Amino acid sequence: MKKKRGKISLYYSHDIRGYNRILRQKVREIKDIKLDSYKLSYKNGKFVFFRLASKDIKPEDPVLFINAGIHGEETAGPLTILNNLKNIFSYARKNKVKLIIYPLCNPSGFAKITRFNIDGDEGIFGNSDYLRYKMVDGTIKDDIRNNNNYKAWYWSTEITKKLPLETKMVIRLLKKEPLKQIKACLDIHQDYISNALPSAYHYSFGDLRVYKKIISKIKKIVLIYKDKPIDAGFGEIGEDGDRLDITEEVSISDKNGFVVRHDGTMADLFYRLGTSFCITTETMGSTPLKEAMAVNNIWIKGLIDLIASSKNNIK
Ligand SMILES: [Zn+2]
After folding, report:
1. Taking the model in full, what pTM does it have?
2. DSSP characters for the chain?
3. Cα 3 to ligand 1 centroid, rounded to whole Å
4. How far apart are CA 185 and CA 300, in angstroms?
5. pLDDT confidence tier of residue 232, bands split at 50, 70 and 90
6. 257: phi > 0 → left, psi -120 to 50 → alpha, else beta; which?
7. Could you tell me the distance, in angstroms and rounded to a whole number, from the CA of residue 283 to the centre of ligand 1?
8. What domains can be seen in the chain, in order of their start residue?
9. Which residues hold their Cβ within 5 A of ligand 1, which is an ion?
10. Is the pLDDT of residue 137 over 90?
């Protein structure tokens, strides 16, 4: 018997089957979207990895790449994309920007509400581990903070095989993407490690003044976590997820909440690939889901605006 399905106004569950079903349902309602799915076969279960993209990406089209949910407990990113899919695609279409989205990079972590995957595979440097630096003295590092004095960089897969399955999947797919056409990268996270009031901060590189409008819009939703030490994700984490001693130097966010840190994660990778706008957005774990999603949406639309306006400047 066919189940009657009502219109979904806001989906906010960790039920992976529900997420996948509703995503497929929403995709069917959008004309110019393409959905590819790939299998992630863990020791403890099989999951689906989705890739969403604008249908006809022509060689001259600028692209926004969005990546969400690599840390499984950070569900606001995957939910932002699910809940606003139609809106995101129509905004991009209106501005003649194409999209490539990996909406839920760590589906088993999402289902279990754990940072890492269902096998508990943390790799060597976590699962958000996409590039490595070779230093002048020959040592290989995953995180060089704001030091640019390195000799070469490599995709992490060129250096090690010890990467979680979802990380390998992301890299395998990324290598097939039109990377030169990607003009902006948005990696969506939440910070469940720093114990702070609802607020937002962001990792980026280069000229940070271009994000002025975006920051003023975010300020209307939540506080900016400014002039604060940011060490979430860099200190040692115990097996139960608790913080152990901070072993590394702490970065400080600037007056607009920006942190510049070459830490080998997604935005850093795209910065090295030459992408103009590279952002990792973080909302504090205490931020209500609706507000976290609103911040993520501001970034998505803001980056589409930036791509559209820089395209017009070139012409
Ligand atoms: Zn994260």
Report:
1. 0.93
2. -PPP----S------HHHHHHHHHHHHHT-TTEEEEEEEEEETTEEEEEEEEEES---TT--EEEEEE-SSTT-THHHHHHHHHHHHHHHHHHHTT-EEEEE--S-HHHHHHT-SS-TT---TTT-S---EEEEETTS-EES--BT---EEEEEEHHHH-S---HHHHHHHHHHTTS-GGGEEEEEEEEEESSS--SSEEEEEE-S-GGGGHHHHHHHHTTSEE--S-EE-TTTS-B-TTS-B----SPPEE--TTSEE--B-SSHHHHHHHHT-SEEEEEEEETTS-HHHHHHHHHHHHHHHHHHHHHHHHHH-
3. 36
4. 9
5. confident
6. left
7. 10
8. 36-314 (3.40.630.10)
9. 71, 74, 189
10. yes
Å from CA of 78 to ligand 1 middle: 12
Task: Collect all residues with Cβ–Cβ distance below 8 Å to 99 and sequence separation of at least 6.
Answer: 52, 53, 54, 63, 64, 65, 66, 88, 89, 92
Is pLDDT above 80 for 117?
yes
Backbone φ/ψ region at 247: left (φ over 0), alpha (ψ -120 to 50), beta: alpha
Place of tokens 């994700």: 233
Mean pLDDT score across all residues of the chain? 92
CA angle, corner 143, sides to 49 and 237, nearest 5?
70
Span from the CA of 311 to the centroid of ligand 1 (angstroms): 31
How far is the centre of ligand 1, averaged over its atoms, from the C-alpha of 15 (Å)?
19
Q: Return the amino acid letter for 277.
A: F
pLDDT of residue 279: 98
191 CA to centre of ligand 1 in angstroms: 6
